[in-house]
Automatic annotation (TrEMBL):
SUPFAM superfamilies according to UniProt: lambda repressor-like DNA-binding domains (SSF47413), RmlC-like cupins (SSF51182)
GO molecular function: DNA binding; DNA-binding transcription factor activity
Transmembrane segments: none
Cross-referenced InterPro entries: Cro/C1-type_HTH, Cupin_2, Lambda_DNA-bd_dom_sf, RmlC-like_jellyroll, RmlC_Cupin_sf, TransReg_Diox_bact_type
Protein name, as recorded: Transcriptional regulator, XRE family with cupin sensor
Keyword terms, alphabetized: DNA-binding
Classification via Gene3D superfamilies: Jelly Rolls, lambda repressor-like DNA-binding domains
Superkingdom in the source lineage: Bacteria
GO cellular component terms given for this protein: cytosol
């Protein structure tokens, strides 16, 4: 896979939006220094951190990583047609441990529904900074096990277990097991 420069892409998007690093930090609720570190490739963002920053720009992860993906009215999708939301975050890593792969079915914005095929390698974590956004989400664990924290509740879900919650509550996903965890989820309105 060709290396994707997250820092350069973020800087380009910020400049197109006409924002300084400080303005983007304020709009996204992250420290100014974090944006600087990411833009200069001295730090790789977690999925949660990158999503917060992109929220400050008003764009999705799909628009960030796959800006040239044409909109489609397709109804059915093959695995290779899913939109890759995260693999490019890890394009410089040799070791897959801790990697999260999120693939989106079709154009989430067009349907106001985001359906994801999620894979979490052992050690994968959406980040210490808990996710919070205006949505509702739910999913089913297909393989492996995943620890999900929602507000004050925390559980390790195994294949066949499921979840459903208000995404305004702080939440986090972690694979604390020794094998890949696979989840199929939905979120409305779309968040990533």
């Amino acid at each position: 896979m060709q290396e994707f420069d997250v820092g350069t892409r973020l800087k380009e998007m910020r400049l197109v939006a006409g924002l300084s690093q400080r303005q983007l930090a304020e709009a996204s609720g992250v420290p100014h220094g974090q944006i600087s570190m990411i833009e200069t490739n001295r730090s790789s963002p977690s999925v949660a951190s990158l999503r917060k920053i992109l929220g400050g720009l008003g764009i999705t992860m799909s628009e960030f990583f796959e800006p040239d993906t044409p909109t489609t009215q397709a109804v059915f999708f093959k695995p290779q047609e899913l939109r890759d939301l995260t693999t490019k975050l890890y394009s410089t890593l040799d070791d897959p441990r801790g990697k999260i792969t999120l693939q989106q079915v079709g154009d989430a914005r067009a349907h106001n529904l985001q359906v994801l095929y999620e894979r979490y390698e052992p050690g994968a974590d959406t980040g210490e900074a808990m996710l919070e956004h205006v949505s509702h989400e739910g999913g089913i664990v297909i393989a492996g096990e995943i620890e999900i924290t929602v507000g004050d509740h925390c559980a390790v879900l195994k294949a066949g277990d499921s979840y459903l919650f208000d995404s305004n509550l702080p939440h986090r996903f972690r694979n604390i097991g020794d094998r890949e965890a696979v989840v199929v989820s939905a979120c409305t309105p779309p968040y990533l």
